[in-house]
């Protein structure tokens, strides 16, 4: 299953990877394009499709989810910035030990997507003040913190491809560049380009809240469809990374 995902990733990312290599003399552009390649890495594909499904669904049903997308992006920026700082402070010994921890962090993503899928389907309900990506009928509650944590956790879902892109390919440029400190957050911005493109298209085509305007029942149908997709992605992700 992972081999199939890797083949799909290789086909999608090869043109962008070649572009990144040709722009290595332009560190900021290099980091941005390399982040886009990272968005297409095997371990990031299901997470990014899930983010597109979640925030695209919100945008179509209610209004463009710029706030949620912003916090999601901020979570990614913080995650990659902290990783860059840790490598810079602790050196190559820390970098070499990181692969021991990332596989376990990566395995969390599948169950998390399954949880969110069941939540969107209404199978799991949370009561009280804690609200994790809850899509209520009235959409009265939003959780910027949940979007931030989702972006943070998705960023830590490393696999060999992502590890090579960030630590082996990007970090040497970071350490060699006089303004290397801005390259990890630039890389993070590159990883959310597919999501930003989808949300921008929905906004440009005037798709904000179109389903909510046409009726709440239709909106709930779309939410259920999105929940099923999230559930399937979570199952696929779990089977792939838990070797079931």
List the helices and strands and how they pair.
Blueprint: H1 2-22, H2 27-39, H3 42-61, H4 66-90, H5 92-97, H6 102-107, H7 109-121, H8 144-155, H9 160-176, H10 183-191, H11 193-204, H12 210-214, H13 216-241
Q: Which secondary-structure class do the elements indicate?
A: mainly alpha
User: How many strands?
Assistant: 0
End-to-end span in angstroms? 10 Å
**Relative helix content:** over 70%
**Cα gyration radius (Å):** 18 Å
Bin the strand percentage: under 5%
Task: Tell me briefly what this model is.
This protein is mainly α and 244 residues long.
Give a structural overview.
The radius of gyration is 18 Å and the shape is globular. The longest helix is centred in the last third of the chain and has 26 residues. Helices cover 76% and strands 0% of the residues. About 6% of the residues have low confidence. By secondary structure, it is mostly helical. The chain is built from 13 helices and no strands.
